[in-house]
Amino acid sequence: MRINRFSAAILLGIPLIYLIVFFVTPLGMVVVDSFSNPAGELTLANYAAVLGEAYYWQVLGYTLWIALVTCVATLLLGYPLAYYMSLIEHRRTVRRVCFILILMPLFTSNIVRSFGWIVLLGREGLVNETLLLLGIIDRPLRLLSTEVAIIVGMIYVMLPFMVLAIASVLQNMNGSLREASRDLGATAFATFVKVTLPLSAPGIVAGTLIVFTLSISSYVTPRIMSGGRSVVSSMLIYDQFMLVFNPFLGSAIAVVLLVTSFALIVAYTLIMERRPGRGGAS
């Protein structure tokens, strides 16, 4: 059934207007503010301050490091989970239960989940109490307000996105290809490396892109889990807007973060597009 041009314009126009009003316009305002000063004059002073100060580069590097570690860790944890739910477990009820368990953390806010980790990782939390009970440690460890705490919290928040992205590809994979590989004498490991892993690459790419972009802009989890001891770019931007009341410098930091992440995502996408054996198993 074909639709006329008016109906097509309505279907396209509504989301387009929404994007323009709630995405393009605010982003444009941030970009304009990044080139402005309190007097309303155009200036490059904000970018000179951001790009010329080593502190901002350190914060940006730390932000990228947290996002990268989170991305790699969620991939290493999420792929086996997605593989099990999609290719090993064939009982529909068990699959549904697994997906519900994966999605359950998304039913609560990041704040609630982060405070839950504070209870677990605190000096008198479950982790320290268990280690003390087993005699592994003599006194409670400082687990909160550390880089490990930030990464653990980030992994917990981002893992469902990675699992769902990879599982959606594995579930739609042609099972006859793996069966043909086994019939030709390939071992289970060789079948995974030569067939399953290459065919699941789109899910890996989608999952890593989602996790990386969400991690690089995450604010709540790093703020709560670090206790203010570590600073990422999102925290710096918030402080400039809400505490220092310098939206112009905050906008410049936001634009630098946006451009940097966009460049990294484009480079990663191009590398994955040009990888050997793309598009099928060898």
Automatic annotation (TrEMBL):
<dbReference type="InterPro" id="IPR000515">
    <property type="entry name" value="MetI-like"/>
</dbReference>
<feature type="domain" description="ABC transmembrane type-1">
    <location>
        <begin position="60"/>
        <end position="270"/>
    </location>
</feature>
<feature type="transmembrane region" description="Helical">
    <location>
        <begin position="191"/>
        <end position="216"/>
    </location>
</feature>
<comment type="similarity">
    <text>Belongs to the binding-protein-dependent transport system permease family. CysTW subfamily.</text>
</comment>
<feature type="transmembrane region" description="Helical">
    <location>
        <begin position="248"/>
        <end position="271"/>
    </location>
</feature>
<dbReference type="InterPro" id="IPR035906">
    <property type="entry name" value="MetI-like_sf"/>
</dbReference>
<keyword id="KW-0472">Membrane</keyword>
<keyword id="KW-0812">Transmembrane</keyword>
<feature type="transmembrane region" description="Helical">
    <location>
        <begin position="62"/>
        <end position="85"/>
    </location>
</feature>
<dbReference type="Pfam" id="PF00528">
    <property type="entry name" value="BPD_transp_1"/>
</dbReference>
<keyword id="KW-1133">Transmembrane helix</keyword>
<keyword id="KW-0813">Transport</keyword>
<protein>
    <submittedName>
        <fullName>ABC transporter permease</fullName>
    </submittedName>
</protein>
<feature type="transmembrane region" description="Helical">
    <location>
        <begin position="7"/>
        <end position="32"/>
    </location>
</feature>
<feature type="transmembrane region" description="Helical">
    <location>
        <begin position="148"/>
        <end position="170"/>
    </location>
</feature>
<feature type="transmembrane region" description="Helical">
    <location>
        <begin position="97"/>
        <end position="120"/>
    </location>
</feature>
<keyword id="KW-1003">Cell membrane</keyword>
